[in-house]
Predict the structure.
Amino acid sequence: MNKSLEIFLWLTLSGLLAGCSTGIQTASFVPQEAVEIDGDGSEWLSHLQYDKKGQMGYAVANDDAYLYLYFQLVDRMQMRKAIMQGSTIWIDPQGGKKKTLGIAYPLPAGREWRQSMRSDPQTGRPSRMPLTEILASQWEMELRYPKKDIVYRLPLDSQEGACLQLKASRSALLYELRLPLQIDLGQETLLTLAPGQAIGVGFETGEIQMDQMAGRMGGRPGMSGQMPMGGRPGGMGRTPGNRPGISEMLEPFRLWINTELAVPE
C-alpha cells in the first residue's frame, strides 16, 4: 500500500474513533456564589448551552469540592420519557462516554402509576396523574456503580454530599445536581475528580418496553401540572400533526457532553 495512503487512512480512522468516544464540548466555570440546589435555573442562564437536536439545555460548574450540573428538558417527548422510564446522569472520569458512576432520578414509574395512565372505562379518556404526585413519592436517588454492581440509595437533599432537585413545569423539567468530587462508599472509592480534569457527563432516559405501551395512547400532549400524554400510534417516526410515532417513543434519549473542570483561583 502506498505510504501516503496508509497514513491518510490511519489518520481518518483515528479521527472517527475519537469522534465516537467523545460528546459535545462545553466549558465548566467556577461559581462566584454558593450554588443553591433548588431546581431554579436562573443562576445558570448566563452559562446555559443548548443542544438543538435533543432540545436540551445544559451547564457545568465546579469548585474545589463539588461538581454542579444543570439540565433543562423542554421537549415534551423527552420530558415524558424522563418521568415514565426514569433518567440517569452518568459521570466518566476519563473524559469519554463510559458509565462509571450514575445518579438515577426519578426512578422508573411504578405499576400503580402505569395503570393510572390507562383509559378510564367510563369516559374513554386517559387518566392523568399530576407530576407533583409522581415526584413526591420518590424522595431518594440511586448511586449506581456498574463496575462492582453497587446500587446505593440516598436522600435527595443531603446537606454535605450529593444533592439533586428536579422542578417540573408546563414547559420544562429542570435538573440541578451537586456531586462531591470524591465519593467513597465503605472501602470502595466510587468517584475521584479534580479541578483541571477532563470528564464526560451523560444524561440518559430509560427504555420503554412494548408491554408498558398498552393504554398509554390517546389524548393530547399537555402538562398543566400533569404528565403530557402522547397521541395514538401512527406507525414509525412522526405521525400527522408532527406527533411522535412508536419508534421515537421507544427510543431512549441520550446526550453526552465533555468538559474540563475549571481551576479555582
